[in-house]
Every structure is written in C-alpha cells, then in structure tokens.
Design a protein that fits this description.
two-stranded antiparallel ribbon; 6 helices; 27% helix; single chain; Rossmann fold; alpha/beta
C-alpha cells in the first residue's frame, strides 16, 4: 500500500484525522496492563495515540509510511519509532501490548490472520492486543484504498487459538455502533 508513502497524502490524512484519537481505550488497557508496560502501536499515522499513551506506557510507534514517521520525528526527535508492515511485523522487539486504531481493516481476512499470528511473536507471554475496526460486513473502496468491514463473529472466526478473547464491544465513533474493538490475551506461543 503506497498511498500514504506520499508526503502530500500523509499530510492530508493528518488534517482529516484531527480530533480523532484512542483516548477512550486507555481504561481498557489499564484493566490489563500496569503503567510502565511496553506498547507497540501499529499504523500510528499522525502519532496522536502515541502522544496519549506515552503518559502511561513505554510506547513505540510504527507505520508502513516513512512519511508519517518523518513528520512525527520532526516534532518528537526522541520518539521510539519503527518502520513496520503491520502484516509481517518484522522486529525482534517484544511488547506487553500491541494496539491499532482502525488500521487492520485495511487487510483481507488472510492478511489479518497473518498479522494476528505475527503479533504473537512480538508479544511477551500474557501480552495483550487491542485493535479497533469499522463494524459491518463486506468491503468498500475509497480514494483507491480498500477497507474491510468486520463484525464480532467474523473477527472471532479469524482469531488464532493462541489468544484468549477478553473483550469485544461496539462503540460509536461517527455513528451509533459503527465501530468495535477487540482485546485478546496471548496464552500460547505459535
């Protein structure tokens, strides 16, 4: 996916995303992790959630777009950032938590399964993941980018057996029940 590799597109997205963040998920994370835990954000985009979560956790931001990383690094030169594909997640680092906010809906079902399996390799034992999705069925293409809609059942069907489901819950982002999040705990290695 090269759309956000372009600096102009990355800056346009940053403007569109202004005012949206994952602040509502901090209490969900705090139920399962102590302050000071390590957290990797997949697809950090403008870095809004990196800023929010850094108040509580040792956070590493990541994105597939070098443009997003460069923009964020200019304002935050000491930030820990990784250039990562959220499917392959090629890093030797381990984390207590992996988080994404409306990123994994860019993946087909097979790509999502691969991502979830590769996340297991980057999680410490009993580590958790929290990911948000648009709620629904099917797919949509907008601006040349394909978005997959998932629901609680379709996500459960894709979760590898090495995870325990802790929470799946709908929430409102733009419309009533238009989104949901899932919290999983790693219980076994691959």
């Amino acid at each position: 996916m090269t759309y956000y590799q372009d600096l102009k597109n990355a800056k346009e997205y940053i403007k569109r995303a202004d005012g949206y963040n994952g602040k509502i998920f901090i209490p969900n994370l705090q139920k399962y992790m102590n302050d000071g835990a390590t957290l990797l954000e997949l697809g950090m985009g403008p870095g809004t959630d990196v800023d929010l979560f850094s108040e509580f956790y040792h956070i590493t931001g990541s994105d597939y777009s070098q443009a997003f990383l460069d923009i964020y690094k200019k304002k935050n030169p000491n930030a820990k950032l990784l250039l990562l594909d959220a499917i392959t997640i090629k890093t030797i680092q381990k984390f207590d938590c992996i988080y994404s906010n409306k990123v994994l809906h860019l993946f087909s079902k097979n790509e999502l399964i691969k991502s979830l399996k590769n996340q297991l390799k980057c999680l410490n034992q009993n580590g958790i993941i929290l990911h948000t999705f648009w709620h629904g069925d099917g797919e949509m293409t907008h601006g040349g980018i394909k978005y997959m809609y998932y629901n609680e059942k379709s996500i459960i069907d894709l979760i590898p057996s090495q995870y325990e489901v802790l929470e799946i819950k709908k929430y409102d982002e733009m419309d009533k029940d238009d989104s949901f999040y899932v919290v999983l705990r790693k219980i076994n290695e691959i």
